[in-house]
Design goal:
The protein is of the alpha/beta class. The protein has helices at 58-69, 74-85, 105-115, 132-138, 174-180, 198-204, 217-221, 241-250, 253-256, 259-267, and strands at residues 2-3, 19-20, 24-26, 32-34, 41-42, 94-99, 122-129, 146-149, 162-168, 181-192, 224-240, 270-284.
């Protein structure tokens, strides 16, 4: 593949195209954004924030990096890469965006996977997350990816300029996705299946229900149609105490569980783990604005 720098970034203030310079990006109307020393660009204006430090905390980012780097979710990353690669149109320039990329594990895995494939053409990569701590961590993984702090509701990207969006356990804004995707563009969603992490949930909750199937009514209303759906379930085997605690901190379960449930999980020496994932490919209907 031939990696090219993303040229479709948009000013979060007025929507004008952003142009890269040495240590900054700016638009024709004089709005300037610094490139951080780690290599990312913060395109989240104060007026788009709902809290002082939105998104995952430094503790959550660190826990997720430790857990994912162990390779436990390697089969998830691999299947995501295979499904995403299948969406590429031969001979065409392709722009990827990972919406809610976190600390970059899955997007970096996809990048490496595509780099080993022949005939992928010119590819650009945009990793987007609302957490500055997450993006700062992601920027350390891969300097060829354009890492941005921003929101999925209002991605700082030009309309109809992205070909494929991946969203892994992330917040979905189908209106935001539809705005930046080209007609025929794809969204690859990765979401928990009914039995995902059931052993952990049985430990920390008094009443455990199977995870509901993803509701895609909002996607259909935004002009998307389902093109594919594939499950992935496997036994990850025993994870140790450190991995249990990393998993707990990196997921919403840490905040949803009561104190007794969290303490029970934190004291475990080992835990069997079921991973149950649903991959869904959505396509933006041609003609949808």
């Amino acid at each position: 593949m031939n990696v090219i720098r993303a040229q479709n970034l948009a000013c979060p203030i007025d929507g004008a195209r952003l142009v890269f310079h040495d240590k900054q990006v700016d638009c024709e109307n004089g709005h300037v954004f610094d490139i951080a020393r780690q290599g990312y660009v913060n395109l989240l204006p104060v007026q788009h924030k709902r809290s002082k430090q939105p998104g995952d905390s430094k503790e959550m980012v660190s826990a997720r990096a430790e857990f994912l780097n162990s390779g436990i979710y390697g089969p998830v990353a691999d299947k995501l890469a295979v499904i995403t690669c299948a969406q590429i149109r031969d001979g065409e320039e392709t722009c990827f965006m990972d919406a809610g990329c976190g600390e970059g594990y899955y997007f970096d895995y996809l990048f490496d996977y595509l780099n080993k494939k022949d005939g992928c053409g010119d590819l650009s990569f945009i990793g987007l997350d609302i957490s500055k701590d997450a993006i700062a961590s992601a920027a350390k993984r891969n300097k060829q990816i354009t890492w941005l702090v921003g929101t999925n509701r209002q991605p700082p990207v030009e309309p109809a300029s992205v070909d494929i969006i991946t969203c892994v356990f992330g917040f979905q804004s189908f209106e935001g996705f539809a705005n930046i995707l080209r007609p025929g563009g794809k969204v690859v969603l990765v979401e928990p299946g009914p039995d995902h992490l059931k052993e952990l949930r049985e430990l920390i909750y008094a009443d455990v229900k199977k995870t509901d199937s993803p509701d895609l009514a909002c996607a259909e209303e935004a002009g998307f149609s389902v093109r594919d759906r594939q499950p992935l379930q496997f036994r990850a085997g025993e994870i140790n105490n450190r991995q249990i605690n990393d998993l707990l901190v990196m997921t919403p379960h840490f905040y949803r569980a009561n104190i007794q449930g969290r303490e029970a999980a934190q004291k475990l020496d080992k835990l069997e783990l079921t991973v149950d994932i649903v991959f869904t490919v959505l396509e933006k209907t041609a003609g949808v604005a």
